[in-house]
Amino acid sequence: PGKIPNSTIPALRRLSLGLVYLVGYTVLSPHITEDYLLTEDYENHPFWFRCMYMLLWGKFVLNKYVTCWLVTEGVCILTGLGFNGFDERGKAQWDACANMKVWLFETTPRFTGTIASFNINTNAWVARYFFKRL
């Protein structure tokens, strides 16, 4: 008790995941652009295609922010700021600065899952200091 465990491996995991998102964004950025949404070619496609393209574009643009959050979380873990105590099995928890549950965000079929997995600390702060006071 009182000693913070080694944070290198958990920090490198978050950094690596952030780099995967960064590489994906960098590779796809020339091909999925918002400029295409204003072209006549886009306008001439069927409605279902336009909806799917806009869905993919929005998801793709969000990857920039996911990259920033994951890299920042890795830095917080590495410095020890991300340490959040131990769970009931004695395993260190590194989620004090977590802003995203990536697996839940990418796989949830429900809107409530998206809210629960995205912008976690901000949502908790708003719930604690704003909504509970209303």
What do these coordinates show?
The chain folds into 2 domains: 7-96, no CATH class; 101-133, no CATH class. Helix content is 61%, strand content 0%. The protein has helices at 8-28, 40-44, 47-79, 102-107, 111-117, 120-129. Helix 1 (8-28) runs antiparallel to helix 3. The longest helix has 33 residues, at 47-79. The mean pLDDT is 90.
Topology readout:
Layout: H1 8-28, H2 40-44, H3 47-79, H4 102-107, H5 111-117, H6 120-129
Give a concise summary.
This protein has 134 residues and is mainly alpha-helical. It has helices spanning 8-28, 40-44, 47-79, 102-107, 111-117, 120-129. α1 runs antiparallel to α3 (47-79).
Main features:
mainly alpha, MBOAT_fam, 134 residues, 1-acylglycerophosphocholine O-acyltransferase activity, 2 domains, single chain
